[in-house]
Design brief:
Number of helices of chain A: 18
Strand content of chain A: 25-35%
Oligomer: homodimer
Number of strands of chain A: 40
Largest sheet of chain A: 8 strands, mixed
Radius of gyration of chain A: 35 Å
Structural class of chain A: alpha+beta
Largest interface: A-B, 135 and 135 residues
Chain lengths: 676, 676
């Protein structure tokens, strides 16, 4: 980077930005174009004008039941005491459901209530008919000329039926708005052409925002036209905008180059070729968004990071598509949630934080996902979005806050929320639950083992994944539970997890175990103090009688397994301690040195909860254990065993709770302890 | 109808029926087939297995900001008092967002916080960097081998992004379940071939259920194969089932012939060709539903009426498609609502009643739509569904009841609910509101003028359409309002509505006005006592000095404009009184004889409500009046005028309410009265 422009964005409130954009469009608006499509091709299209019934439905007074058609007034004398006989072909007429009533008839008597006389020419009834009984009357459903659908109606299955019944075989709909998507960036390559080695070396970035945008636009009733990638060059960008407009785009969406850096040309190009309306909105993620008009058509520059980019599209593209199709933009269901930890936010910026949600004892608990604008999984994993207003400095843990739901509320109620340490087998449990117990699922949020126990103590999750070694006793989890929880819980063993040395491919230094870490020629990279892996390292060193100070790099700390692996991969260190999956992910060698216990902590009060029962059924199945074995790096011999029951610590004088463990449970506890 | 079979259905609880069907399928289940599709074709498909990341994302430690890459530890001494100078190419490296960090760097300092020295080879900073500041770390978003999507995930825009970031270019998905739809019925013709004259004579019925089903199946991830129409013949039906199975159908959906009548063969054919599991469910509509298995594949017979048929499809086809794709069936949001009148129901039958919903002062009010199984518009017009359980005899007016929402709750909150007399111009208002005020809409429910005023008195609607003539004074609506409402309201004139004589086409009897109704050769058809039209007739007869008894047929009553029109069309009567639209709909002659006033009654407390303001803006627009004129039969000269203000009748000693009309308002009221 030779030279930096240090232009700053002028941040505008997103509502003001949208109003300004719409106003600019209204100033040069042509009416939206319409077309007529066959009814059979009208699904998901949007009506462009009121659609009236062409015929009445039903088109005649017809029988709603099989039976006899009569004139009700002729039957008024009939009663069980004085049955009435009618003459077929004169005062009574056999009729099938759906068939037209003979003239002068105005009621149908069900076949079950009709006795045919022996002569076959008369029938007897024991009950009077009232007028229009069991008759579908002409126009009962709709009358010709009546409006069936107002304009701006998205046509679904039911609407197709109503149009068909009204004899409407061609439907006036809005033409689908055409959105041209222009990916830009000199380092961007089409997704299918991105080679792993180039990606790993940072020589290119795969382009896939256009895939996300196209889907969003299609779901909003538009059509997306993904254009070729344009380099970071103002002339090329201007040419691409004009080409898209020449090809009939109703809207041009540029991505990226919307910020104020030395290679960000979107705003400048729009200003040159048309009118720049907005450069920068006071929303995070999404801040570097550009709005403008070129040749009387709207042009938007969306930021490059996927999360920011989707916010720009949701805030400015989808409302425009809705407006063009005269319907209200889709709004999401909202609910109250309690954040499981504080959400600080920068005043002056509206912030949108994606969260996982769990329904614990009827309360929605929100677990924030990483806020990074590039974290695509925060899009796919989120259950909801919390918006922190501009004026607000953040939200305290435990304060109720409104959340937009990305999944239906009842789906959330059917799920389990695990908070605690992360392990890949939690994702496996989720997959098995979905397969075998369709309505159930496991959402997991990762705040570390101790954070999970604390969330459990606050009733903010259903279970916690935990691997806390007591380095004195060498026993996992029990001491931490006793120190953290008042409530009675039980401990279910999930997996044994291999910890080992992550080494450069081929193990060039020839390490054979923990003892080699003390070698003078070895540079070690450590985990941060308090992490389970650091505790394990200290425990292993103590077992071998090695003083930590003897390790080169004992004080060099990283915060995750993956960071340790990356340090080894880049040559910064010769070895680090971590789980096998991190080594496998980066193609490193792995030398197992110990086994760690990863357990699930579950409150006794949920012991009979059907979701917990489903989870236990899953993890005790042979299929699950086989899948765990297939992951590599795990031991599943004792998966699903209840290895400890913790009675909880009640304050003095507190009432005995019905779910507190009884004497036999305590005995079982001892037994389980001995087992392990 | 020559001979009736009087077989009855054995009604089964729908949950039991579904369990029995699933159990039969499980007994002969093959695993669902899967396929791999390109990521670009994966939108809305459902993952068939856990999908793991193929690469880590990001693939390297990269800059999250433009600036300089540093090793954080090298900067710890920097502060405003003692700025630190770093050497470019050695301890500092210019870097652009997204580019990989040089080896040994672990932080980025934003360009805004960097001063370039005059020599161009050094930079100065005033603040230390902390490790990993402004760095997107390798695997921060996802780590290779990690599960991105569990099985049974419907792939949306966000999921596409996550898969792309994980380098997954081909996705394992379930093959779309194939549903063969076989329409049956000897009188059924394809929709496009149904001629108006045949429909009106009842010689054929158009087939369009397959259109509704196909859309429902497509939205549930299946593909529909609509097969040719089959006559009511057991052999033909059996052959059609086998042909569909031969063509690879996963499920066969027969429609109709599922009841127990003489021409209903579905159950019999399934029993002959396979296993009949269920014939009849205890749900209305939807009772005559058939479930069975033929050649180890599920076959369902759905009832012929569209509303029943969709309930059969929703209850048995969609859950099966969801089960095959391993995800929970879509469930609808639920809410509490208050029915505006009692909902009686037959014990022993679960009943599903479609309702319109309005949010009045925060309470959801449910207005039942017609329950007829053939009423397609009850599908397209419904906002929600109330289920009355088997054991229940119905729901009292005003008792809270759970409703499944067919539209989002917040959309309902943005709408206006009108209850009262029906008029087509209400639909026109709705269309204009949607066009000009996208978020607003007008839902109207039709219970007659007096019913509307009563609903207003109970705070169950926002406004009421009303045309109640006081036959003594000849003034519309005011007396009825004063008799019914305690609350202050204002009366807005909507339209003058032409009433007239509906006559056979060409007016063969040469009628010229009301006086001719007393002619001896004229058979009249009347409306029921209490209807506005009957009141108008009496008023007109009194004006002309004609005794009602002189009219032939004065005591022959019909309940709707359309029934009167149908009586005239069928030749049962020579004339009836009604609105022009009914005459137009059936192609009758129309002889105007009077003008009726149709007004809107709106509570004063809503006078500044923005939805009411939007409505008033609409009806006062020139475009709206032009559209009303175009309908024919209306006068719109005074549309939108506030013609009366009613102060309400408060109980003695009640507090003056702030929104009660003041003296000037009362004066204006007098003025308006004089105007009219």
């Amino acid at each position: 980077m030779e030279k930096k422009r240090t232009a700053y964005l002028t941040l505008m409130d997103p509502d003001d930005a949208l109003r300004r954009w719409f106003a600019a469009m209204d100033a040069c608006a042509a009416p939206r174009s319409e077309e007529e499509v066959a009814l059979t091709a009208a699904l998901h299209r949007v009506t462009s004008r009121p659609v009236a019934a062409r015929r009445s439905s039903p088109a005649f007074h017809g029988a709603a039941m099989d039976g006899i058609a009569v004139r009700a007034e002729d039957t008024f004398s009939a009663c069980p005491q004085r049955p009435l006989t009618l003459e077929l072909g004169s005062t009574a007429h056999w009729i099938n459901t759906g068939h037209p009533l003979p003239p002068h008839c105005n009621a149908v008597i069900m076949v079950e209530h009709v006795v045919t006389e022996a002569d076959g020419r008369h029938v007897t009834i024991e009950k009077a008919a009232f007028p229009w009984q069991h008759v579908r009357k002409l126009g009962e459903d709709m009358v010709a000329t009546e409006i069936i659908l107002p304009p701006g109606t998205r046509i679904g299955a039911y609407e197709l039926g109503a149009l068909a019944a009204g004899g409407v075989l061609r439907v006036p709909v809005f033409t689908r708005p055409r959105v041209a998507i222009i990916p830009s960036g000199s380092e961007i390559v089409p997704l299918a052409q991105a080679r792993d080695e180039d990606l790993q070396a940072g020589r290119c970035l795969p382009e896939f925002n256009s895939l996300i945008f196209s889907a969003m636009i299609a779901e909003a009733g538009g059509t997306a036209d993904v254009r070729p990638i344009v380099p970071d060059d103002p002339q090329a960008i201007a040419a691409a905008i004009h080409a898209a407009l020449d090809d009939g785009a109703d809207l041009v969406l540029l991505n990226a180059g919307s910020s104020a850096g030395s290679r960000d040309f979107t705003a400048q190009v729009i200003q040159q070729e048309g009118t720049l309306l907005v450069h920068g909105i006071s929303v995070m993620p999404g801040k570097p968004t550009v709005l403008g008009m070129v040749r009387s058509r709207p042009v938007i520059g969306a930021p490059g990071y996927p999360v920011s980019a989707t916010i720009a599209v949701e805030s400015f593209v989808l409302p425009l598509l809705a407006r063009w199709q005269q319907h209200a933009p889709d709004c999401r269901e909202r609910a109250q949630a309690i954040p499981c930890h504080a959400l600080p936010s920068r005043p002056g910026m509206e912030e949108r934080i994606r969260v996982k949600l769990g329904d614990v004892d009827g309360t929605l608990v929100a677990v924030p996902l990483p806020r990074g604008a590039g974290t695509v999984t925060s899009l796919s994993r989120a259950d909801g979005i919390i918006t922190i207003p501009r004026a607000c400095e953040g939200i305290d843990a435990g304060s109720p806050v409104e959340v937009e739901l990305l999944r239906p509320r009842h789906t959330l109620a059917q799920g389990l929320l695990a908070i605690g340490s992360h392990d890949n087998t939690l994702d496996l449990i989720d997959s098995f639950l979905r397969k075998d117990h369709a309505a159930c699922r496991l959402t997991s949020a990762h705040v570390g083992s101790l954070g999970g126990l604390q969330a459990l103590a606050r009733h903010q999750c259903h279970l916690a994944g935990c691997h806390l070694l007591d380095s004195q006793s060498g026993v996992y989890n029990r001491q931490a539970i006793a120190q953290t929880l008042d409530e009675a819980v039980f401990l279910v063993h999930l997996v044994d997890r291999e910890q080992g040395l992550m080494l450069p491919p081929g193990n060039p230094r020839g390490l054979t175990g923990i003892a080699d870490l003390a070698r003078e020629d070895i540079r070690f990279i450590n985990r941060q103090r308090g992490s389970g892996t650091r505790v394990l390292l200290d425990y292993l060193l103590r077992q071998q009688g090695i003083a930590p100070a003897r390790l080169n790099g004992y004080r060099d700390e990283e915060y995750t397994h993956m960071n340790v692996a990356a340090a080894v991969l880049s040559g910064r260190a010769d070895a680090g301690l971590g789980v096998r999956s991190a080594a496998v992910a980066l193609g490193l060698d792995f030398l197992p040195v110990g086994v760690e216990e990863y357990d699930l902590v579950i409150p006794q009060r949920l012991r009979q909860d059907e979701r917990i029962l489903a989870l236990l059924e899953v993890i005790r199945s042979a299929e699950f254990r086989a899948a765990v074995d297939a992951l590599g790096g795990y031991g599943a011999a004792h998966t699903g065993e209840v290895i400890w029951e913790y009675a909880g610590s009640r304050p003095e004088g507190a009432e005995e709770r019905p779910d507190a463990p009884s004497a036999p449970a305590a005995a079982a506890r001892e037994q389980h302890s001995a087992d392990r």
